[in-house]
Amino acid sequence: MEFIQRRAFERVPVNIRARFYSYNTDFSGTITNLSENGMFISMKKMMFPLDSKIEIIIPHEKKLLKVPVRVIRMTKSGNVFNGLGVELLVIHREYLEFINSLKCEANVSC
C-alpha cells in the first residue's frame, strides 16, 4: 500500500520574481508556488547548504515584502542546482494577506 503525504497547506501556483542576498551574493529567482508556510523558488543556478537561513524579498503593492525562510530542499537538473524549497521562519500578517489575495485571484479556497 502506497502512502501519499499531503501538505498541511495548499500550494498556490504563481509566477513572481523575487530576490535575496546570501553568502555575499545577490540572487534572483521566480517563485513558482507558495503557501502559508513555504514556497518553491526556481533559479538558473545556485548552491546553498541545507538549513541556510535567508530573507526572500517579494515586490508587492508598491512595497517590498520581506520573508525570512530556511532552505529545506534543493532541486537539481543535470549537474546544476536550479530550485529551492523553503519554509517560513516567521509568518507575518502581511504575508498571510498576500497569500489570501493570490488564492482569491487563482480561485483557490478564497
Protein model, in words:
The longest helix is centred in the C-terminal third of the chain and has 13 residues. A hairpin with a 3-residue loop joins strand 2 and strand 3. The chain is built from one helix and six strands. The model has no long low-confidence stretch (mean pLDDT 84).
CATH architecture: Beta Barrel
Strand order of the largest sheet: 1-2-3-6-5-4
Number of helices, where a helix is a run of at least 4 consecutive DSSP H or I residues:
1
SSE series = EEEEEEH
DSSP, total strands: 6
The parts where pLDDT drops under 50 for at least 5 residues are none
Please summarize the sheet with the most strands. Answer: 6 strands, antiparallel
Strand content: over 45%
Q: Specify the overall morphology.
A: globular
Distance between termini?
34 Å
Range of helix content: 10-25%
Layout of secondary structure:
Elements lengths: L11 E11 L2 E10 L3 E5 L10 E8 L2 E15 L2 E9 L4 H13 L5
Antiparallel strand pairs: 1-2, 2-3, 3-6, 4-5, 5-6
State the main characteristics:
1 helix, Thrombin, subunit H, mainly beta, 12% helix, 110 residues, single chain, 6-stranded antiparallel beta sheet, globular
Short description:
With 110 residues, the chain is mainly beta. It has one domain (14-105): Thrombin, subunit H.
